[in-house]
Specification:
It is a single chain. The protein is of the alpha+beta class and 124 residues long. The protein has one domain: 2-Layer Sandwich (GMP Synthetase, Chain A, domain 3). It is built from three helices and three strands; from the N terminus they run H-E-E-H-E-H. A three-stranded mixed beta sheet has the order 1-2-3, covered by helices on one side.
C-alpha cells in the first residue's frame, strides 16, 4: 500500500492563522484544524501543511488514529512532537481518544509539503 500525505483543502486562509470552523463542522475537519496549530519548531510551518501527517482515521467511537513522520529520523523533537499532536487532537470537542504513531516509510521529502508551505518557505 502506498502512503501519501493527507490533504484537506478549503479550510485555511493562510499558514499560521488559526482555522475557524463552524461549531457543527465534521470531526475530521476539526481534528485537522487542531493539527494545524502544531508547528515544527525548526521550520515556521505547521506539521499538517509541512506534510508530516500521512494518515488520519476516526472510528465510530470518535477515536482518532494518526500516522505521522518527521523531517528526519534524527529530528531533535522526535520525543515531543507526536505527544503535542496527540494533545492537540484530544482537545477537540467530540474526540474520545487520540493515538499518534510515528512512521518512517515513506521518508519525508519536500514533495510532501502543501503548495502553501512551499510558498511560505520560499521554495517556488
Amino acid at each position: 500500500m502506498e502512503v501519501k500525505p493527507v490533504w484537506f483543502h478549503g479550510h485555511t486562509d493562510t499558514i499560521g492563522k488559526p482555522v475557524e470552523l463552524a461549531e457543527d463542522a465534521p470531526l475530521q475537519q476539526r481534528v485537522i484544524a487542531a493539527m494545524r496549530t502544531v508547528y515544527d519548531p525548526e521550520i515556521s510551518v505547521n506539521i499538517y501543511d509541512l506534510g508530516l501527517i500521512y494518515d488520519v482515521q476516526i472510528n465510530d467511537q470518535a477515536e482518532v488514529f494518526v500516522a505521522m513522520t518527521l523531517t528526519a529520523p534524527g529530528c531533535p523533537v522526535a520525543g515531543i512532537l507526536p505527544a503535542q499532536v496527540e494533545c492537540a487532537i484530544k482537545a477537540v470537542r467530540g474526540v474520545s481518544d487520540a493515538h499518534v504513531e510515528l512512521v518512517w516509510d515513506p521518508p519525508w521529502s519536500q514533495d510532501c509539503m502543501s503548495d502553501e508551505a512551499r510558498l511560505t518557505l520560499g521554495l517556488f
